[in-house]
Amino acid sequence: MLLGDLFADPTLPHIDVAALAYDARAVQPGTAFFCVRGFRADGHRYAPEAVANGAVALVVDHPLDLPVPQVLVEDVRTAMAPAAARLAGDPTAELAMVGITGTNGKTTTSYLTRALLEAAGRQTGLIGTVTSWVGGTEHPVVRTTPEAIDLQRTFRAMRDGSDDSAVMEVSSHALALHRADAIHWDVAAFTNLTQDHLDFHADMEDYFLAKRRLFEVASEQGATLIACVDDPYGARLAQDFRQAVTIGIDTPDAAVRATELRAGPASTHFTVDGVALRAPLPGRFNVLNALVALAAARALGVDDATIAAALPGAGGVPGRFEPVDEGQEFAVIVDYAHKPDALDNVLRTARELATRRLIVVVGAGGDRDRGKRPLMGAAAAQHADAVVITSDNPRSEDPEAIIAAIAEGAGAEAVRIVDRHEAIDHAIGLAEPGDVVVIAGKGHETYQEIAGGVKLDFDDREVAREALRARLGR
Question: Final residue of a domain: which of 249, 284, 313?
């Protein structure tokens, strides 16, 4: 594509651009390089390397003394998404796009939505925290929402792979950093908002406004908006965007409301508009996730009979209330809950399953929102009979300092074990018949991140399985 077409500027030099990059190491001949200002480094510093690697143009916020054409823009990051969409052929204009944002529930809701669309015969891509699906093939993911260049390239691959729909988890970081710009939304959904990411956002209002941006853009495009009004921030969105489809359990006037809830150990039965449904996960919070998925599927033309038939078999999400069963006489559940509200929801649900005690292993990530740590401890102490505080992904922080902050909320009775493997062994060693052990924080992750960005192999599910086998003498 010509450089002028890429940036909708006919005055730019007549140069062919074959690819885009924001990392100088990824530049090949024919690439336009975006000099993005990051949190730790300024991409303008790497422009000489990009030119040496074959960059035919630079996108800059100030002129550089380098012998290639330069596209001068006010904000390089903001310029990425529109250019990436043009080079990819604007693929989201050809996809039925569902964007799901919120603090908790994005992954489960995305999985459920994709399952309902697939059941209706629509091949559906997925971009999420745990995995992605492109053209019917599963791929690993690096971050919840990739950079705009990678994202638009993925959408192009979805269309080329015969996907006609796509479901995407949309993080507040992606919205604030313009990664999710230049997407044509058909459905935009909001699950809830609770404390998290205050290492990135100034406060909860700033966090909310970042999430709200999805509704602002989608509303202008005429998309269907879906808001969970049992959540106060969702209620705010419904006030601001009166056309939004409201969902809820506790809100009597919600347009899509679940009634007659009957909880089971692995699923929840409920009714919507006279239709009997079963969500494939336990807990009221998962019913809300299912309601969002139902509303999204309806918006894209899926009928209630298809939804009712498909929802029970939608399948669990890896690391979301995932049982680890080696034939023991107590339950072990691994969950990704790493925020106060998510932990509260998971422990409330686990409490309903326990006939005796509830035991929880809990930690918190380093170099992240520190204010939530005592809140995590308080949630654990409120619901569990035994609390084991341990490391999560400490990154550059001292694990003992993180544990001490969690203990401020958990109280003196909480057991502190820095080594996560030992902590899981200890919790499983405490369990007796009828107990439920919840291992919270890492869920589907298969690593533990320590100082220097080093990632060590670590999977809560496998560690729990080893501990159970050792206890059972296998």
Answer: 313
Task: Note if the pTM is more than 0.90.
Answer: no
Under a CB-based contact definition with an 8 Å cutoff, are residues 179 and 172 in contact? no
Of 155, 167, 211, the C-alpha closest to 300 is: 167
* Co-location of 295 and 163 in the same domain: yes
Whether the Cβ atoms of residue 96 and residue 113 lie closer than 8 Å to each other: no
For the chain, the maximum distance between any two Cα atoms, rounded to a whole number of angstroms, is 75
CA 358, CA 462: separation in Å to the nearest integer?
A: 21
Contact 31, 20 (CB under 8 A): yes
Q: At what angle do helices 204-220 and 232-240 cross, to 10 degrees?
A: 40
* 7 Cβ contact list (under 8 Å, min separation 6): 71, 79, 83
Residue that terminates a domain, selected from 261, 278, 313: 313
Is 69 in the same domain as 98?
no
pLDDT digits (tens, 9 = 90+) for 92-131: 999 999 999 998 899 999 999 999 999 999 999 999 988 8
Classify strands 268-272 and 275-279 as parallel, antiparallel or unpaired: antiparallel
Residue 361 one-letter amino acid: V
Select from 430, 261, 433, 440 the least CA-distant residue to 355.
433
